[in-house]
Write a structure and sequence with these properties.
With 201 residues, the chain is mostly helical. The chain has nine helices and three strands. It is globular, with a radius of gyration of 17 Å.
Amino acid sequence: MKHILPELSFKYNALEPYIDAKTMEIHHTKHHQGYISKYISALEGNEDLLNKDVEYILRNLKEVPESIRQSVINNGGGYYNHKLFWEILTPEKTSISNKLEKAINESFGSIEKFKEEFAIAAATRFGSGWAWLVVDKNKKLVITSTANQDTPFDKGTPIFALDVWEHAYYLNYQNRRPDYISNFWNVVNWKQVSKNYENLL
């Protein structure tokens, strides 16, 4: 299969003032493209693996030769994580589905409590990494975070993510990660997050 940079469903300046156009352009065309290119290079000569979806590879890392496994984790993770991230961003106002809202209320008490817990996971992730909302094997919602470009498949299937690498926010927010996290809620595509959740039920 072909591994190509996914197109965004919005223009680079569409998320302003919450995420600026220059950050979006660099993040998409340089960082995400870089991970995809390095992922392809890491798997060069392993056509059977290259022909599989990156999510399958990240869920089945034992199939990857040990000599290239860390590179696949790093770059395959960057490839997969950003793909999900772009999908759950939108300049439009969207609504959460009744099913997802009910699940969030059951797991965290309320939408506001969920946002608080998620923001803590994102703000306290030391160094570079991601905050996640995943659906575990019992169909329960769990908040977690990972370092670097690691994926959370050991906890479940991610339906929602926030990139807290400095490259995701530093041009606009500098060292004010909490401000970036707070503003992120203004551009969440709840319609897509709800769809991600309901596809797993």
